[in-house]
Write a structure and sequence with these properties.
This protein has 493 residues and is of the alpha/beta class. The chain is 36% helix and 21% strand. The chain has 14 helices and 23 strands. β19, α14 and β20 form a beta-alpha-beta unit. α1 runs parallel beside α7, α2 crosses α6 and α9 crosses α10.
Length: 493
């Protein structure tokens, strides 16, 4: 075994080990072998990071002119572009995601920092039409303070950008907790942030487990906002923790996103979109289109075409440019997928393709594109988020029926509609209870497009022009404009 790469945490502009020297290894999903060792943050380490962020918030950072903070954001974007290949390679080794995607995403994510740099001096206050003489009242937006950004392993650069960029633009300071499942790329990212010359303590990067690291971070009395992306169970713990410090919370959680294909859909386009939605990134996307409803008139024809396409997807090493699907990120995912598939088959589900571990490697977590027909809309693979390349397929007859079925789930993150009818696309997209709907396309992101869900998929939005305001608070300032003393101090005016 080659020597493990060693990482340190980035706290208050310094590279440090855990105070108790505890570490853990991170595994390469391609071969299930350790490749790097990272610090395991203790409660003291987490406290140190938060206090460093608070000290930076009390210092020069929020006092800088917005255009000055914007320069740092653009510098971060430039670093991402210049180091996209390195970042992509590290993320691929640590998560198993395709290098062709991680490299391209690192370049594109730079646009988010440019976008919020452009917004830094565009957030305005108001002059209020107060109903009192000799009074002028205004509102301004001020930074919140220390933000805890808790990042999952599956789209780290994207899900960091949607939190870090608006937070910095508005003058906040940030403690980033990288996922313990694949923390390496955010430490590499911290090295690039350091190169920009940003003041010490403005950005801190730590990693560790839920207790003590996550719990200390989300209960800390100096943390004013928690921005979390992850699963609903962890989110419930975070909400309970936030009761101790009364911090704001925004949650971008999971999904079991439904996609409907109507008889009049352009089939080749629909197959491309569905393939991207569920088999892209090996299905390890919170917006994965994992529930497919096909109208009965084209059901057999369309399903056969889709299954044929899925069976031809090239599985291989994630660094190989020819590979279309790499391994799953961890063994727990693999076990969850297999358990749900077995239960579904026991209850009548029919495997159309895939369904068993792939033979590409007996060490890595490889699982093939899997399509399962489900007569029962509530079978395990159709009901539960699996975070893998598993598509449950069901038949529908009418528009009203498919809308009802698409909404019959506790999640509400993403959704898709394929139809040649503009009016139907408008009607169905409006009726679906989800934060995002794609019509005749799927799996797109943009700095200007809000991202987030409803129901058990969380609350709050990331990206888009309005999300920058979520990293501010409104302050009202009253001015008494008369030269004469005010009257009657014992009566509210």
């Amino acid at each position: 075994m080659s020597k493990l790469k060693k990482y340190q945490m980035y706290i208050d502009g310094q590279w440090v080990d855990a105070e108790n020297n505890k570490t853990f290894e991170t595994l390469n999903p391609e071969n299930n072998e350790p490749w790097a060792v990272v610090p395991e943050a203790s409660a003291k380490d987490t406290d140190k990071a938060v206090k460093a962020a608070q000290k930076a918030f009390e210092g020069e950072w929020p006092k800088l002119l917005p255009k000055e903070r914007a320069k740092f954001l653009r510098a971060i974007g430039d670093q991402l572009r210049e180091n996209a290949e390195m970042l992509g390679e590290i993320e691929t080794i640590d998560t198993g995601k395709l290098f062709r995607e991680t490299k391209k995403q690192a370049i594109y994510i730079a646009e988010y920092y440019d976008y919020y740099a452009g917004l830094a001096d565009k957030v305005e206050g108001t002059v209020l039409p107060i109903d009192k003489p000799n009074i002028q009242a205004i509102t301004t937006r001020i930074p919140i303070g220390v933000v805890a950004a808790i990042i999952p392993w599956n789209s780290q650069m994207f899900l960091t950008a949607t939190k870090l960029a608006p937070a910095l633009a508005m003058g906040n300071t940030v403690v980033i907790k990288s996922s313990e499942l694949a923390p390496a790329v955010l430490f590499e990212f911290a090295k690039l942030i350091e190169k920009t010359g940003i003041p010490k303590g403005v950005v801190n990067v730590i990693t560790g487990f839920g207790d003590p690291c996550g719990k200390t971070l989300t209960t800390h009395d100096l943390v004013e906002k928690i921005a979390f992306t992850g699963g609903p169970e962890t989110a419930r713990h975070i909400i309970k923790n936030s009761a101790e410090n009364l911090s704001e919370v925004s949650l971008e959680l999971g999904g079991k996103s439904p996609v409907a294909v109507f008889d009049d859909a352009e089939q080749e386009n629909a197959i491309n979109g569905i393939t991207a939605g569920i088999f892209g990134a090996s299905g390890q996307s919170c917006i994965a289109g994992s529930r497919l409803y096909i109208q009965k008139g084209i059901y057999d024809e369309f399903l056969n075409k889709l299954s044929e396409r899925a069976s031809k997807i090239k599985i291989g090493a994630p660094m190989d440019p020819e590979t279309e699907m790499g391994p799953l990120s961890n063994f727990k995912q693999l076990e969850t997928i297999e358990k749900n598939i077995k239960e579904t088959i026991d209850q009548g589900g029919k495997i159309k393709c895939g369904g068993e571990r792939h033979s590409f490697s007996n060490k890595g977590y490889y699982f093939p594109p899997t399509i399962i027909e489900c007569d029962n809309h509530n079978l395990p693979v159709a009901e539960n988020e699996l975070f893998g390349p598993v598509l449950s397929v069901m038949k529908f007859d009418t528009e009203e029926e498919v809308i009802s079925k698409m909404n019959d789930n506790q999640y509400g993150l993403s959704s898709g509609v394929y139809t040649s009818s503009l009016s139907r696309g408008m009607r169905v997209s409006k009726a679906i209870r989800a934060g995002i709907t794609f019509v005749n396309t799927y799996r797109l992101i943009s700095p200007s497009a809000p991202f987030g869900g409803i129901k058990d998929s969380g609350y709050g939005k990331e990206a888009g022009i309005d999300s920058i305001k979520d990293y501010t608070r409104v302050k009202t300032t009253w001015f008494y404009t008369s030269d004469e003393p005010s009257l009657d101090p014992f009566s509210i005016r």
